[in-house]
Design goal:
The protein is α+β, with helices and mostly antiparallel strands. It has two helices and two strands, in the order ααββ.
């Protein structure tokens, strides 16, 4: 017989649901792109610094 273990409350609040995380990541990329729009570059890629979540999102000009 197996028993289910309920996750702790802190585990539930420590992570974002995938859809919300994706929306925040996209918003961050768009904000960063907007800041770079006058740099003279036409194309950018949105990257993420490993382990930093949405706060680590940044754009880099494509060469």
């Amino acid at each position: 017989m197996t028993q289910a273990v309920a996750p702790s409350r802190t585990a539930k609040t420590a992570t974002l649901p995938p859809v919300r995380y994706g929306q925040q990541a996209l918003g961050r990329c768009l904000a960063e792109f907007y800041k770079q729009r006058k740099s003279g570059h036409e194309a950018f890629e949105c990257l993420n610094k490993q382990g930093q979540g949405v706060e680590g999102m940044y754009v880099k000009p494509l060469t």
